[in-house]
Write a structure and sequence with these properties.
It contains four helices and six strands. It has 148 residues and is α+β, with helices and mostly antiparallel strands. It has a single domain, classed as Histidine kinase-like ATPase, C-terminal domain (Heat Shock Protein 90). A six-stranded antiparallel beta sheet has the order 1-2-3-4-6-5, with helices on one face. A hairpin with a 5-residue loop joins strand 5 and strand 6. The longest helix has 22 residues. The protein starts with a strand and ends with a helix.
Length: 148
């Protein structure tokens, strides 16, 4: 895991296209969320979304190519967490991925990660190329941070 830069609120990391590298990023983000007293349900949601985004970037975007990297930028602020995951793949059209919750696609293995990311995050936005996803999770109230 290579630190790329720190830009105002964002920490930026570059990892190899290996699933084991993703764990290091997840742990670093969780450490920061805990440091800022985010409750456990937020930790779960953000970790799950990041795990899915990293898995998609490594497996589908970079196709496990060891010569390609995934860039992860994140900012943990009092009112929200922002994550941006970028791979070096050709990208895809997220609208073309079938909804895995419909009867026609219940058996399909694809699309589940995107569905989970959308379920647990407040915003999930892909760039026009489809090789970068930006996710945001907002904290509902300052009091909910004290409960965790």
């Amino acid at each position: 895991m290579l630190p790329v830069s720190t830009n105002q609120h964002f920490q930026c990391l570059s990892i190899s296209s290996e699933l084991s590298s993703a764990r290091q990023v997840e742990q670093r983000l969780i450490t920061e969320l805990r440091r800022q007293n985010y409750p456990d349900d937020y930790l779960f949601a953000v970790r799950l979304a990041l795990e899915e985004a990293l898995s998609n970037a490594i497996k589908h975007g970079n196709r496990l190519d060891p010569d390609k990297t995934v860039t992860v930028r994140f900012a943990v602020e009092p009112e929200k967490v922002q994550l941006i995951v970028t791979d070096q793949g050709q990208g895809f059209d997220p609208a073309a991925v079938p909804d895995p919750t419909t009867d026609d696609h219940l058996e399909d293995p694809s699309g589940r990660g995107i569905t989970l990311m959308r379920a647990y995050m407040d915003e999930v936005i892909y760039n026009s190329r489809g090789n970068e996803v930006r996710m945001v999770k907002r904290i509902t109230s300052p009091q909910s941070r004290q409960a965790g």
